Amino acid sequence: SQWVYRFGGDASDGGKGMKELLGGKGANLAEMGSIGLPVPPGFTITTALCAAYYDRGEVYPSELAAQVTEGLAHIEGVVGKTFGDAADPLLVSVRSGARVSMPGMMDTVLNLGLNDETVLGLAKTSGDERFAWDSYRRFIQMYSDVVLGLDHYLFEEALEIAKEDRGVALDTELSADDWKALVADYKAKVEAELGRPFPQDAGEQLWGAIGAVFGSWKSERAKVYRKLNDIPESWGTAVNVQAMVFGNMGETSATGVAFTRDPSTGEHAYYGEYLINAQGEDVVAGIRTPQYLTKAARERAGAKAASMEEAMPETYVELAEVFDLLERHYRDMQDIEFTVQQGKLWMLQTRSGKRTAKAALKISVDMANEGLITPEEAILRVDPAALDQLLHPTLDPDAPRDVITKGLPASPGAASGAAVFDSDTAERRSGLGEDVILIRVETSPEDIHGMHAARGILTARGGMTSHAAVVARGMGRPCVSGAGSIAIDMKTRTMRVTGREVQEGDIVTIDGSTGEVMIGRVPTVQPELAGDFGRLMEWADTKRRLKVRTNAETPNDCRTARQFGAEGIGLCRTEHMFFDAARITAVREMILAEDEKGRRVALAKLLPEQRRDFTEIFEIMAGLPVTIRLLDPPLHEFLPHREEEFEEVAKSSGVGVETLRRRTAELHEFNPMLGHRGCRLGVTYPEIYEMQARAIFEAAVDVAEKSGAAVVPEVMVPLVATARELELMKAVIDRTAQAVFTERGRTLDYLVGTMIELPRAALRAKEIAGEAEFFSFGTNDLTQTALGISRDDAGRFLGDYVDKGIYAKDPFVSIDVEGVGELIEIAAERGRAARPTLKLGICGEHGGDPASIDFCEGQRLDYVSCSPYRVPIARLAAAQSAL
Ligand code: ADP
Ligand code: MG
Ligand code: MG
């Protein structure tokens, strides 16, 4: 079979579509050769050979040697020199190249083919003795290091001593004789170490290097990297053997690396570095400081050393043309390696360049505007998850940071402020205009006001879907959760971590995108939402089928979500409205009341407050659909804990403190998440849902009257398991609606529907759809109930589950398609069979996760609903799924 493919010199056997066989480097060298770019000729030994070599117990197929000889003949023919010829030797580089570039693979060997005789030939034909001996010493050094396994320190030390002896600072200042002496020294060192001389035969050198590339495929470093990046061992690597071109032939020669656009900002400007009179890795090795490619970049940096644009203007123009040509050809930003030999430009590598999220966005949009790619391609090229980084303030990448610990990246964005350890202090100090970071062991619904007041939240416990994480994401507050190594001492108001201490008021910084916690203030940079971002979003909106709503209940969040493009509210959690300091007493009074009469007294106090909440939300959402979930959490979450709270409730309700304490004990539950919550509250205390329904309809009528806009409330009943539960609750809602409509002499359309968040509800979806006009999949609870894993505690062991491959991803982050997904599929199918007009949406945290959104598109749901800051991510992900 064919193990060897040629490239360069009008004979490229391969092309860019052959990465699997030729590796990325080989395929692109062939491609550049065949589109007429100056590529030194060479050949690629395929990845298939690598596999065959290992299959046969590290033996080459017999026909390989002849094919390599033919490959060499191709190079010799194009260059007009012969490999190993003492008078005029051909030199080659040996380069590894897997499908994806991979650290851990053998480093490149340059100048291969030099020995004690050919070095003299090279000196004569080039007319430059110094260059010849410099090349030889480089070769001995590289070959000994990467093929013979000798420590490069051995050679570096000798070089340093030589420079000291000569009293010079730079390699370039050494003379031909200096290099000649060093070569002798190097060779003696190799022989002393290995007990045999440095190989002089060019053929032996070549096969040694080829063998080292294939050997490095199974090196420990390569294995570790493959494991971390899911690269199969069976892929193998290719080997590229290529004629040398020399960037170290004096002042008209150079070597460099470049990006066709700025990989960190995306700016459409060439970006790169080069070095005059240098070879290969000198640019990245840091031996000499590389110079800028463009004049503009040099000026911006205030650097003195001439840019390539200035030092080699003609070659620079040629290079710039190649950049543009490669971009047009590959239709993407390219990362390029080149060498200039005595004024002649040679291309040595090109590939799609790595880039930051910001650059990815800008480059995609710019390229679509330039007509290089279509808007569809632009949409597909931006990773929705990476948008998250762009919507929040981020840490100034250049600022120093003093990292003390790392937790989970629970809610993106970065924030600095004074450390505070309770929510009341957070509220008080932020009220005085101070930025604060709220630090808690974990948060509960009672911390909402503190979380709102804080710039960021840090918790010692809790996973990615802990209370702190979910609420913080919802509010768009940066949050680091589960930072297990911090110890909080509430008495002394200090936090201790890895031997450091933070007192209340000390400035800390958290980065919710990485999980890092730092001492001191780290400056942040603000995001930009208009421009490229807005443009990409517009394109995405024309392509997607899924609607995108938001989970929001405060006016602020509603406004933020609309600004991010939300098309309605998919989940308005009414309980969040109950924690307000002005209302909590009435809420507690309602809960602790002994009978319906007592409850109704308290509820009457809450009615105007709730009506005001809904009025404001309907106004902001201006006719967009608003799904309001009736009270859901276990009542104990609202109960008083502190003595003065009991007294307050006692005063307001006229009931004794003792009685209240007894009621509190009665309401205690061992497993509240599976307890008296959701519609179970409505079943026991219909008057609660009646009050909420009344508030909704009165607000809706008010806003409809005032604005003339159509307000269509969608009333949602939580935690339904049976059709009968929903039937009972729907009766309460319908009855209340009729009452309000009669009183107000005005009717409006509304929907009654349910959350599907219990496996039983999914299975009995047919009957439930008889009562429900919409289903909203509450996938947080559905995951918790289907998997039987508590979302608040799972963080402790879910990591092991993911590591051991039990779940591919955290099922609270990305839908467990096999289990929870099947329940959704069943519910959708059975629900739609019973009611073809049934509206279907998802409102769990998964509504903002691209993989889960793709699943929702597959199920043809009507909408996804997610926290405000994830709305743009969902819009883009929905467009990608639809394309
Ligand atoms: P890596 O994958 O680590 O970038 P490469 O195989 O691209 O390794 O080689 C590194 C550098 O060596 C190249 O950027 C180039 O400067 C130099 N190099 C490789 N082959 C040649 C060659 N045939 N002629 C001149 N320089 C070369
Ligand atoms: Mg390279
Ligand atoms: Mg729920």
From TrEMBL:
Gene3D superfamilies: 1.20.80.30, ATP-grasp fold, A domain, ATP-grasp fold, B domain, Phosphoenolpyruvate-binding domains, Phosphohistidine domain, Pyruvate Phosphate Dikinase, domain 2. Keywords: ATP-binding, Kinase, Magnesium, Metal-binding, Nucleotide-binding, Pyruvate, Transferase. InterPro entries: ATP_grasp_subdomain_1 (IPR013815), PEP-util_enz_mobile_dom (IPR008279), PEP_util_AS (IPR018274), PEP_util_C (IPR000121), PEP_util_CS (IPR023151), Phosphohistidine_dom_sf (IPR036637), PPDK_AMP/ATP-bd (IPR002192), Pyruvate_phosphate_dikinase (IPR010121). GO terms for molecular function: pyruvate, phosphate dikinase activity. Its EC number is 2.7.9.1. PROSITE patterns: PEP_ENZYMES_2, PEP_ENZYMES_PHOS_SITE. Residues 530-881 form the PEP-utilising enzyme C-terminal domain. The keyword Transmembrane helix does not apply. It catalyses: pyruvate + phosphate + ATP = phosphoenolpyruvate + AMP + diphosphate + H(+). Residues 434-515 form the PEP-utilising enzyme mobile domain. Catalyzes the reversible phosphorylation of pyruvate and phosphate. PANTHER family: PHOSPHOENOLPYRUVATE DIKINASE-RELATED, PYRUVATE, PHOSPHATE DIKINASE 1, CHLOROPLASTIC. Belongs to the PEP-utilizing enzyme family. This is Pyruvate, phosphate dikinase. The gene is ppdK.
